[in-house]
Amino acid sequence: MFVHSNWIKAGFLDKIKNLASRRNFKDLTLSPLLSLTNDQFHGHINSILQMPGTSLLFGNHDLHKDRFPNCYGFVDPTAVMVPIDHFLNDSYTPRLFTELFGPFQMIVEYNDNDLNEKLLKVLERIPYNLTEGVVSNDPIFQTKILGIII
To answer: Which of 2, 19, 51, 84 is most enclosed, with most CB atoms within 10 A?
Structure first.
């Protein structure tokens, strides 16, 4: 998730952390992972956290480990902050562009100066454009982004 620095200053990260903390097994807003074990999930997260400047925002804990076989994972929602420059570094891109089918997101802060030189270049590098999205209610911004990525 690419988040403009203004939204971070406005408390967006606290809001998504609060929303993520509401997810649970009891109401089925959180479920076991069928495609990853806990060790695989944590291994991937930890490989990202070894990159300089990254940080764990929340999560990365095992849940109900005693209730499910080891072939399934069950972790709480997890978010990692990753510097935008890492997405332009070829040595990091295999780890950063690996999709996890679980409660995981990378948060990438950008500002107005990063838009043309970094953000749009990163969007172009995302394989298959499967998880790419730009959300804004500014029609000028929408037109600029759509004109470049379509």
So the answer is: 2
